[in-house]
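Notes from the 1:1 (GR / supervisor)

We went over the backlog. Supervisor wanted to see one worked example end to end before approving the batch request, so GR pasted a single chain during the call. The sequence is below; no edits were made to it. Supervisor asked that the structure be written out right there so they could see what the output format looks like.
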Amino acid sequence: MTKANVIKPVLATLVAAAACTAGLVFGPAPSAQADTYSDLINAQNQHAASVQREAELKQQLAGVNEELANKILELDDLTNNKIVAAQAKVTAANSAAATAQDEADAAADRLAAAQKDKETLEQQIEQTGKDYDDAHAAVAQLAREEMHGSDASDVMSVVTGATSTQDFVNSMQSRDALSRNEANAASSAATTLNTSMNRSDRLAAIEKQIATLKTKADEKAASAQAAAEDAQAKRDALDKLRAQGEAKRNELSAQVESLNDESAKQAAQTVLIASQVDSYNRQYQKEQAEAANKVDPGIQGTTTVPSNPTVTPSTPSTPTVTPSVPSAGTGGQGTSNGDYGNAYVAGQCTWWAYDRRKQMGINTPSYLGNGGDWWRTAPSYGLRVDHNPEVGAALSFLPGQDGADGTYGHVAVVEAVNGDGTFVISEMNAYAGPYNTNTRTLTNSGQYWFVH
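Structure output shown during the call:
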């Protein structure tokens, strides 16, 4: 929903210890395959951002034990470069596999239709012979219907329009002559077609067509199978990278806590946060794969709505809370008011914001609307809304703000607040589609609305 708006990679404190699992995407992947000039420019920009991020991270880790510093840099590269690039390959491979399968299905359908035509024609040949001319018979039938099939309506039309018996006779004779001419012309056309349209020739043509379609269908099926295997291989490679990231993160967690330099410690924790957030992607992808292998007889794509919600707020046309100056605000976070479970569309930013806050022990109303509406609707449930970032708060991006969707806006969750005024957010469906989470660091909190 939102494009990367990465401010300089800064130090982040792990505010809620291990519970505040989050991360910072310093920038997208480095070099990438470029299919168009625009892709090339994006790849170059991504690479430049990656190089800059690495240089700044090295500077922040200056003075740290070289072995530990290298491990931190390796985890950062794995999370923010290799995994991101692998995810892009998976997305492309999945799309290619879906397209190949569609083409294979279409080819199979065409083959089945041709085989059905052959079966029908063989039945007709069995009944009336292979030399029976269907084209001639069909045209002849049309001619007969023209002359006889609608006699009643034709006679009534002529009778009611005739001024005398002679008029009636003349009109009928004229219509008969016209019908005979049309029938003769149709019969002549059918005779001409008879040399190529008899059943024997048609059967041979269909059999030839089936052979061609069978070859194409086999080719498409093989292509679809290869594409599916390629996609699976890329998914396996991505999962392997993420497993490596989890192992490296677990190894580093205890060591980072022992750092004395606050700047280096915050930088290292920022890298750990990014890795932790990405681990959710691995979890969600496994869940989706498992769900794909199960048959669900229920209604798909629906959300269970409570029968008697106690609060059903309407979206006001003007902001409910509009403090002109950010203030510290009062009160805690979250509310059980209107919280009936995660009723947001799975895999979207709103679904993630609800789920992530629930992980943090913060209840969120189930019907706050689109991400860009949360700041507007939250006060009607008693939630505090202001311009102050706080770990666990939902950042409600206005439509179009920082690349958010121009109609629906966007929502993210604050993962860490830094001493220099910057803050780290986690978000879903911002870069790589539904169920994919990432993090970034923002500044100038006064321009954002935070739902506590």
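Supervisor's comment: Strands lie at 385-386, 394-397, 410-417, 423-428, 437-442, 449-451.
Batch request approved.
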